[in-house]
Write a structure and sequence with these properties.
The complex is a heterodimer of chains A (394) and B (136).
Chain A: E1 9-16, H1 27-42, E2 51-54, H2 63-66, H3 70-77, E3 83-86, H4 95-105, E4 111-119, H5 120-127, E5 138-140, H6 155-170, H7 174-188, H8 202-206, E6 210-212, E7 215-216, E8 225-234, E9 246-252, H9 271-279, E10 290-293, H10 298-307, H11 316-320, H12 339-342, H13 349-359, E11 373-379, E12 384-390
Parallel strand pairs in A: 2-3, 2-4, 10-11
Antiparallel strand pairs in A: 1-8, 1-9, 4-8, 6-7, 9-12, 11-12
Helix pairs in contact in A: 7-10
Chain B: E1 3-5, H1 12-16, E2 24-27, E3 34-35, E4 51-54, E5 58-68, E6 74-82, E7 85-95, E8 107-115, E9 118-125
Parallel strand pairs in B: 7-9
Antiparallel strand pairs in B: 2-3, 2-4, 5-6, 5-8, 6-7, 8-9
Chain lengths: 394, 136
C-alpha cells in the first residue's frame, strides 16, 4: 500500500490576516500579519524558517494582484533562507505550496513559509475614480496579442466561450449554475471572516449585470483584501506541532497538450491534474469528506467536480441542481467557507486555509464532522493544481 | 482604448496578411501541419522552415463571448475553427451579426479591419450555406 506522495513534509501552521472588501492597508502589512499568525500557530519562531515561497511573487505584475515580493518579505522578517521560490507559471496558486512541500521533502529546507496576498478590493475602489487617459492604441504582446485586440482582455472574456459551449453541449442551465454562488452564500453565513454573508436568491442571480455573456456578476468571485500564510515543515516536526499537522497525501499539476487560452482541446481543464493526483494515492473520490474547489468563476467549480471524478463529464449541473449534495451535511460538502464567490478572492489560499481548518476540526458552525480527507483544487485554464490532504488518520 | 497586436518577427506576417485580402497561417513544409500561434518549428515534427500559406478564409463558429463595452454596445469574440485542419482555431471578432443571429456551427468568412499597418482579421456570416458538420 502506498503511504502517500509526501511522507517527509506536513502543513504545520496556518495564518490569515484580516480579510475585507476594502481594508486600505498595505499588502506587506497584511502579509506580515498572516506570516506571524502562521508562525505562532506552528509553534515556530522566525529563526526556524529557512524557506520562503509565494504565488505569484516578483514585482512585474500589478501589486494589488501579486502582493509583496519575496525580497520584501524576506527583508521585513530578516529571514535567513536556504531555499526560496515564487512564480506565476506554476500549478496555479497551489504551485507555491507544492514547491514548498517538495523543498522540505528533499531536504532543501526544514520549515518553509508560504504566502499569498491580495489587495484587489482596495485597488478596484481606487480605479473606479480614475478615467483612463486618451492616447494611441495599446500594444498587446506575447500570447495576449491573439486575444486582446478582440476585447478578450481578462479572464471573464476568455472563459465565456468555454461556458457557452459547455451549456450547448451538456444542457447546463443558468438555474443549475446559480446553485454554486447561492450555495456559497449559505456557507458564508456561518463564516465570520467572509466578505458577503447575506443570502443570494435565484432572482438576484438571474437579473444581475452581464460581465461577459453568458457570465454574469454573481458567477465571478469577489475582489478583496487579505493575506494567507502556511508553514510547511519536516514531517518529524509533526510530533511537536501545537495543532494537528495536515498531511499531503497527493498532488496533481498536469497541463494537457495545449495551454493557450483559446487552444485547449476538450475544455475540461483539471482532468489531467486530477487523474495524476488520484494515480498517486490509494484514496478514491468516495473517500473525500470535504471539497474546496476553485470558484474564481462559478463554472470552474462545476468542471473541477467533473475533473476529480465526483460526477461524470457534463453531469455537474444535475449534480448540484438541488443543492443538497454539496451542502453541509450532504454527501460532498463543497467550499465550506463560502469560497471566493462569497468569502472573497484570497486566490486559492483561502480554500486551502479552510481545508486545513476542517481537517483540524476548527471550522466552528461549518465544521464537517470527522473530516479526514479534503481535496483542494485551484485554477482554470491555463494553470491548474490540486492537493489531496488528510489529517494523518488515513 | 483600442488594443492592437504588437508585431513581432513571428507574428508580423499574420497581422499584415490581409493586405491582399487573404488569411494566412504558418505551415510546416515537411509534414504540412498548420501551426498557430506561430512558432519557429513545427510542433508536430519539429522541422524548421515553416512558411505562411493562405487558407480559404472560411470557418465555423465554435463558441463565442458577448462582451459589453462602457457605451452599451456588445462585441462578439468568437472561436473560429477551420476546415483545413481540425485543431486550427482563432479567436476573432464577429461582425455584422446581432447576438440572436449567431448559431453554433454557422459558417463565416474572413474580412479585415485596417488599423495603420495592421490588418485585423474579423469574420462575417456567409449567407445561404450549411452549418459545420459536427459543430451545431
Amino acid at each position: 500500500m502506498r503511504k502517500g506522495l509526501f511522507t517527509g513534509a506536513v502543513i504545520s501552521g496556518i495564518g490569515q490576516s484580516d480579510v475585507g472588501r476594502r481594508l486600505h492597508r498595505p499588502a506587506l502589512d497584511l502579509t506580515l500579519d498572516a506570516a506571524v499568525a502562521a508562525l505562532d500557530d506552528a509553534g515556530l519562531s522566525r529563526a526556524d524558517i529557512d524557506g520562503l515561497s509565494a504565488y505569484p511573487g516578483g514585482e512585474s505584475l500589478a501589486r494589488s494582484f501579486a502582493g509583496p515580493s519575496l525580497l520584501e518579505v524576506q527583508d521585513a522578517l530578516r529571514l535567513e533562507l536556504s531555499w526560496y521560490s515564487s512564480g506565476v507559471e506554476v500549478a496555479a496558486q497551489m504551485g507555491a505550496v507544492i514547491a514548498a512541500a517538495m523543498a522540505v521533502e528533499v531536504g532543501l529546507a526544514n520549515h518553509v513559509l508560504v504566502y499569498r496576498t491580495v489587495t484587489e478590493g482596495t485597488a478596484r475602489a481606487r480605479a473606479k475614480n480614475e478615467v483612463p487617459p486618451p492616447g494611441p492604441p495599446v500594444a498587446a504582446n506575447g500570447s495576449m496579442q491573439w486575444l486582446a485586440p478582440y476585447g478578450v482582455t481578462g479572464p471573464p472574456h476568455w472563459y465565456a466561450p468555454y461556458l457557452r459551449r459547455y451549456m450547448h453541449d451538456f444542457g447546463l442551465t443558468r438555474e443549475q449554475l446559480a446553485q454554486i454562488p447561492i450555495a456559497a452564500r449559505v456557507k458564508s453565513a456561518a463564516n465570520p471572516r467572509a466578505v458577503y454573508r447575506e443570502p443570494l436568491t435565484l432572482e438576484q442571480y438571474l437579473s444581475s449585470r452581464t460581465i461577459s455573456d453568458p457570465i454574469c456578476l454573481y458567477d465571478c468571485d469577489v475582489p478583496c483584501d487579505g493575506a494567507t500564510a502556511f508553514v510547511l515543515s519536516r514531517a518529524d516536526y509533526a510530533r511537536d506541532v501545537p495543532h494537528r499537522a495536515v498531511r499531503i497525501e497527493s498532488v496533481g499539476a498536469g497541463s494537457g497538450p495545449r495551454m493557450y487560452r483559446d487552444q485547449f482541446p476538450d475544455h475540461c481543464f483539471g482532468a489531467v491534474a486530477a487523474s495524476q493526483m488520484w494515480s498517486r494515492t490509494n484514496l478514491r473520490p468516495s473517500d473525500v469528506d470535504v471539497a474546496q474547489l476553485y470558484d474564481g468563476f462559478s463554472f470552474l467549480t462545476l468542471w473541477w467536480l467533473e475533473a476529480l471524478g465526483f460526477c461524470g463529464r457534463g453531469e455537474s449541473g444535475p449534480f448540484v441542481e438541488d443543492g443538497r449534495r454539496v451542502a453541509l451535511g450532504g454527501e460532498l460538502p463543497l467550499n465550506t467557507s463560502g469560497g471566493q464567490l462569497a468569502a472573497g478572492r484570497l486566490h486559492g489560499f483561502g480554500l486551502l486555509y479552510e481545508a486545513c481548518e476542517q481537517l483540524r476540526g476548527q471550522s466552528g458552525a461549518r465544521q464537517v464532522p470527522d473530516a479526514e480527507v479534503v481535496v483542494v483544487a485551484t485554477g482554470g485554464q491555463p494553470n491548474v493544481g490540486c492537493l489531496l490532504l488528510t489529517d494523518g488518520s488515513r | 482604448m483600442r488594443i492592437l497586436p504588437a508585431l513581432d518577427p513571428l507574428s508580423e506576417f499574420f497581422w499584415t496578411s490581409g493586405r491582399d485580402g487573404r488569411l494566412r497561417f504558418l505551415r510546416c513544409q515537411q509534414c504540412r501541419y498548420y501551426v498557430h500561434p506561430p512558432s519557429p518549428r513545427c510542433p508536430r515534427c519539429l522541422a524548421v522552415g515553416l512558411e505562411a500559406e493562405a487558407v480559404s478564409g472560411r470557418g465555423w463558429v465554435y463558441s463565442y463571448a458577448l462582451i459589453p463595452d462602457d457605451a452599451g454596445a456588445v462585441s462578439v469574440a468568437a472561436w473560429i475553427v477551420f476546415p483545413e485542419q481540425d485543431d486550427l482555431r482563432l479567436t476573432a471578432r464577429l461582425i455584422g451579426l446581432a447576438p440572436a443571429e449567431i448559431r453554433f456551427g454557422m459558417e463565416v468568412a474572413v474580412d479585415f479591419e485596417l488599423h495603420d499597418d495592421i490588418y485585423l482579421p474579423v469574420f462575417a456570416a456567409v449567407a445561404g450555406v450549411d452549418d459545420g458538420p459536427e459543430l451545431a
